[in-house]
Amino acid sequence: MTQAVELLGRVVANAVTVAGLSLLSGLLATLLGVVHRWYARATVPAGLSVLVGLTAVVLVLNVESALGTLITGATNGSSPGTVFDTGVIVVNTTVLAASAVAAAAGVASATSSANRRSR
Known about the structure:
By secondary structure, the protein is mainly α.
């Protein structure tokens, strides 16, 4: 029973991580789209917004991994030396994929709202 509760806790924690970092990526891409549209009076290239959104996510994941290893000797709740653990890889890959989609959606929403205002 305790293993099931522990597994459920890890799944919920990982889902919150995926959702939070995807939201961060989408917000940064939207902010970039709005600022670029305001300053340059042109839409931002989609690739640039995805790159900016993913940069923040990658920085968070790397800092979390590095500080986890340095301070506690563990990464993402796992034992030391398991950076290449299957669970960690799956979570990080899911975070990056969801963040890329959120960044693309964020810049699309910023572009569409700017187009509605310019009419």
